[in-house]
Q: What sequence folds into this?
């Protein structure tokens, strides 16, 4: 596979065998990824293509989308990727996305909802209501439109994966986002978990619905700073500084290969790394998550149970 393709995209060469994954593990699978013209969405698309799948790249950036289609096809072979311009809040656009995907590949096995406008990150106080409307339009309306185009076919064939690439449901510094951004994410996560219950048991319907939280997405930092000062100390995630998009994408590939176990659940990239025995750059610093799997009742009441309440 090509590893040194000339491009303006912010990417690194991709070969996930270092993480225990194998080319061909997603052979013949077709994935649609709204919000995949940059950053983590782009990494998801390249990782799926590397794993043998076909990918429909989708977003509003035509220049980047066309280049991603070119790069993935050069890395993996003609016909591996297709770019379709799409505003996920526009029903006509989403229907066109579905038509193009089905016309090109005949089916869709994987839907990864990743679209979001990172500029919609204002606080509760003082932010125009229009920003909240936009956040809900992308995350709430957008995910609903995509689900209704692609999930019925998965249920009919008893084969499919639906993922929401999420963050936190409310803003809590120092985490990313803001009140408006996380409100949209909360709406989409709620829709996803409700869908998981509507779909029913994986054993009966063959469709897995789960949330995936990529951790600390960013590029690797250099071994030392240009001025000679020491590099950042390894974090408890087992990395120095940010976690590359390609690494987070490797975690998602592992999760999709184990999708039956994750139906009706949510998992972070770091939790996936531990499960897959990821070769952390700084394994001595990596701390395993102490989080536990919440019951459906706990997830339903999570908003009600915020904070300590009357506990002393």
A:
């Amino acid at each position: 596979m090509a590893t040194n393709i000339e491009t303006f995209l912010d990417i690194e060469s991709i070969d996930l065998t270092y993480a225990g994954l194998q080319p061909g593990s997603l052979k013949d699978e077709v994935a649609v990824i709204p919000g995949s013209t940059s950053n983590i969405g782009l990494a998801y698309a390249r990782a799926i293509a590397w794993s043998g799948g076909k990918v429909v790249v989708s977003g509003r950036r035509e220049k980047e989308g066309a280049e991603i289609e070119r790069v993935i096809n050069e890395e993996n072979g003609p016909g591996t990727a297709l770019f379709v311009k799409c505003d996920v809040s526009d029903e006509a656009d989403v229907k066109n996305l579905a038509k193009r995907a089905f016309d090109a590949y005949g089916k869709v096995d994987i839907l990864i909802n990743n679209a979001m406008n990172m500029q919609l990150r204002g606080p509760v106080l003082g932010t125009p209501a229009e920003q909240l409307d936009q956040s809900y339009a992308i995350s709430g309306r957008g995910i609903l439109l995509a689900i209704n185009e692609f999930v019925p076919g998965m249920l009919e064939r008893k084969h499919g994966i639906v993922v929401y690439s999420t963050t936190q449901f409310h803003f809590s510094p120092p985490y990313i986002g803001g009140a408006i951004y996380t409100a949209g994410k909360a709406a989409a996560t709620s829709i996803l978990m409700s869908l998981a219950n509507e779909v029913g048991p994986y054993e009966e319907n063959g469709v897995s619905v789960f949330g995936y939280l990529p951790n600390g997405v960013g590029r690797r930092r250099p071994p030392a700073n240009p001025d000679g000062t020491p590099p950042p100390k390894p974090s408890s995630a087992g990395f120095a500084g940010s976690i590359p998009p390609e690494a987070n994408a490797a975690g998602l590939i592992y999760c999709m290969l184990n999708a039956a176990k994750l139906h009706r659940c949510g998992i972070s990239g770091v939790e996936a790394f531990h499960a897959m025995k990821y070769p952390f750059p700084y394994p001595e610093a990596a701390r395993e998550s102490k989080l536990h799997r919440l019951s459906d009742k706990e997830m339903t009441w999570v908003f009600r149970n915020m904070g300590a309440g009357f506990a002393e």
User: Anything to note?
Assistant: The mean pLDDT is 92.
